[in-house]
């Protein structure tokens, strides 16, 4: 299930794994294959990952890759999720081919492994996989990169369905919807780029998942906190992104670490030392230093 030493580097390059991590992954491959227990764990995880591939699974169900990574030997732990995903890769690619997914969409979607590892290095200063569970969506055919944005095949939960129904949408709990995500290291969140992504999503899912009728796009993010409009100009990319959505509600529990993580790279940075180089950095940091809080907003728009 795991590529040999000569084949592994090229596969890692295809997944956009940072160059500084490739030699370490190749070196540790020998440690992994020499450990029968670690190999068995990797195979179990890969098999669980691709079981029922393409099905939309509920949060908390299916393979909990982050938990299983904790069972790996300490020397392998930082990279263990990457080995699991590489082992599952042939199944993911076969699923994409069977669906007719364009090769460029498949490649850019799965390259999120490399982006995730770059986020880990930015935060921790060493190699590793930052969010193993998040990446299971890509390798199960539940999420696709379409231009600037990522779109996840999902289903409405009861409260969201009620909010959409009250706005005149034909929506009940379990109705298919698309959750939109904003990947890092991909340039500005410009209105034109978002327009293009939404158009691509409309065409993509109608063509490759015609049995699933997607009527709405949902977003759950600190970027939808309306307080941002107090700090950013009306023509800023974030404000214009917000205005795409009908804001349904926002959480009542603060989520201060969310903007700190995504704007500054590390949710544990002390608030008093947050830089003020850009308008977004100033907005996030100044609001927190003034005793304010940030919240996750929930919004939607019809597709």
Task: Describe the fold and architecture.
By secondary structure, the chain is α+β, with helices and mostly antiparallel strands. The chain has 13 helices and 6 strands. It has helices spanning 8-14, 19-33, 36-50, 65-69, 77-99, 103-110, 112-124, 132-139, 158-166, 191-208, 237-242, 257-264, 279-289; strands at 143-146, 149-155, 176-181, 216-221, 246-250, 297-302. It has a 6-stranded mixed β-sheet with strand order 1-2-3-4-6-5. It is globular. 33% of the residues are buried. The model has no long low-confidence stretch (mean pLDDT 95).
Topology:
Layout: H1 8-14, H2 19-33, H3 36-50, H4 65-69, H5 77-99, H6 103-110, H7 112-124, H8 132-139, E1 143-146, E2 149-155, H9 158-166, E3 176-181, H10 191-208, E4 216-221, H11 237-242, E5 246-250, H12 257-264, H13 279-289, E6 297-302
Parallel strand pairs: 3-4
Antiparallel strand pairs: 1-2, 2-3, 4-6, 5-6
Helix pairs in contact: 1-2, 3-5, 5-8, 12-13
């Amino acid at each position: 299930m795991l590529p040999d030493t000569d084949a592994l580097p090229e596969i890692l390059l295809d997944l956009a794994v940072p160059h500084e991590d490739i030699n370490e992954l190749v070196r540790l491959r020998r440690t992994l294959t020499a450990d029968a227990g670690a190999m068995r764990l990797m195979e179990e995880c890969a098999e669980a990952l691709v079981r029922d591939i393409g099905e939309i699974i509920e949060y908390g169900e299916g393979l909990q890759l982050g938990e299983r990574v904790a069972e790996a030997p300490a020397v392998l732990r930082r990279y263990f999720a990457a080995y699991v995903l590489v082992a599952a890769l042939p199944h993911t690619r076969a699923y994409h081919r069977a669906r007719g997914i364009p090769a460029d969409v498949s490649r850019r979607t799965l390259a999120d492994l490399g982006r995730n590892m770059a986020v880990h290095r930015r935060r921790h200063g060493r190699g590793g996989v930052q969010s193993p569970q998040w990446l299971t969506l890509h390798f199960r055919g539940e999420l696709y990169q379409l231009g600037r944005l990522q779109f996840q095949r999902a289903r409405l939960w009861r409260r969201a369905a009620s909010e959409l129904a009250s706005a005149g949408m034909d929506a009940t709990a379990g109705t298919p919807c698309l959750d939109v995500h904003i990947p890092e290291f991909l340039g500005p969140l410009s209105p034109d780029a978002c327009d293009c992504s939404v158009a691509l999503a409309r065409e993509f899912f109608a063509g490759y998942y015609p049995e699933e009728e997607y009527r709405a796009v949902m977003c759950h993010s600190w970027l939808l906190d309306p307080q941002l409009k107090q700090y950013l100009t009306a023509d800023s990319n974030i404000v214009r992104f917000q205005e795409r959505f009908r804001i349904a509600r926002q959480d009542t529990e603060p989520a201060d670490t969310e903007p700190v993580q995504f704007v500054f790279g590390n949710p544990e940075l002390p608030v008093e030392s947050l830089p003020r180089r850009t308008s977004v950095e100033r907005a996030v940091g100044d609001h927190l230093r003034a005793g304010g809080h940030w919240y996750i907003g929930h919004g939607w728009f019809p597709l």
